[in-house]
Amino acid sequence: MKAIRTRFAPSPTGYMHIGGMRTALFNWVFAKHHQGTFILRIDDTDQARNVESALEPILQAFRWLGIPWDEGPETGGDFGPYFQSERTESYQKHCQTLIEKRLAFYDFTTPDQSRAEREAAEKEKRNYINNRNDFDLDSATIQERIDRGDNYVIRFLVPRDTDEKIVIDDAVRGRVEFDPSTMPDPVIMRSNGLPLYNFASVIDDASMQISHVIRAEEHLSNTPVQALLFDALEFERPTFAHIPYVAAPGTKEKLSKRKLEQYRKNPKFKKLFEHGDFIFPLLGLENNGGLDPVMVEYYEKIGYLTDAVFNALARIGWSLDDQTEIMSRETIVENFTLDRIVKSPAGFDPDKLLSFQSDWMGKVPLNEKALNCIPYLATAGYVHAGEKEFAHDYIEKVVAAVGDRLVVWSDILRFDEFFVTDDQLKFEEKAFQKRVVKPEDACPLLAELAEELTGANCQTAEEFDQFVHQFVEKKEIGIGQIIHALRVAVTGKAAGVGMFDAMALLGTERCVKRIRRTLELASSSDSQ
Fold first, then answer.
1. Which one, 45, 88, 159, 286, has least CB within 10 Å?
2. How confident is residue 322, by pLDDT bands cut at 50, 70 and 90?
3. What is the CATH number of domain 257-363?
4. Which CATH number is 422-527 given?
């Protein structure tokens, strides 16, 4: 059996798109399923699209998600270099081969001439097909025009004078046919010696012995030209597999960074945007650090589990069966086949991603949860360098109390009441007014409870529970008359972890101090 070699070839544009990551994942999983090789190749020939120092975020996305490349940047390999900008000599050599075989030609048509031809075709409602006026130019004339400084491109000669269709046996879409008679001759090289995408991809795929080209369906239109180039250069065609693009939630539109403001209004995206808007400022990232839910880095920074994101991405357009949702990467690799990939657009579902995340988070041991929360607390200034080891036990107790409310690691910052000083505790204004200021008996009851709590020796949640219930029994009041005001006084919030768990975490002295500060603020509020 031929060795399985797949590749993913991103352009260094500064971030890793969630849809591109899904494509890369499919390539990696397919290769691993067949004990094959996954190649990461950098498509950096388009200088206008390249962003300086933009490669690292892309590589980091692969590292974070646990998708190691077998050949590529940093790792090297036998088929390098793995940057297209370093392979120019190879492209020029193969281009010259096509010219010598009269399968490619110099075209000196000016941009104005091309524009006029396109406009004429559009006016006549026919497909634009370039002229071949320069096809028969001899080498001396070509060199003379180049020396004169005339602009030119090199085009591949499409075999239009044939009844044969270009047939692609796509591993996902089945048999696809294209009519070469309607195809223009594609530009394969610019006058600066740099190749265009289709040509460079073919040369690289052939040189690197790529067996399967697994890519998004928008590249299907590139396939007939690429197939012809493979044939013209006498290379064996790889197997093509065009997977559905990743659609925005609840739509059939491709997930796009250009539509972020539109996505903000999408109810399915609401939680993701709100999470970032809340968390990133606490991490010192102004304007959300330029991150958004279309980028893989967004999920890394917020604190998603790689297993959850891997699981979710694998399920966008592929399934093990009709019911299995939660799968380890080992299970996905073991069972992945191209025939289980759907043809229609596959929607990105943030709610399902959160569901995967919750499920995977439930598998993480308590100690590990605490360790992963510490970096977020440290970045937000709640834990300092020398305190990390000391604070671990306390953080573990907080995480235990938080329970399944900790969906992603940065969620720990939502429970700042356990990490700020008593004087720094902020109150939810609506809850403070509703639960503390407005009820006439709230402040007197809090004052009495604080006084009695001062002499109590409560340490566990059970002991605080018993103390408060004894207090309300003695006062002959319902628990609701004190518990809501007590929660706001102790945590600053209307809801959160169990009330008595919170009190046990803070301890008697701090609870009393917070209650008394609450009373002072309530008194000040009344006097205004």
1. 286
2. confident
3. 1.10.1160.10
4. 1.10.10.350
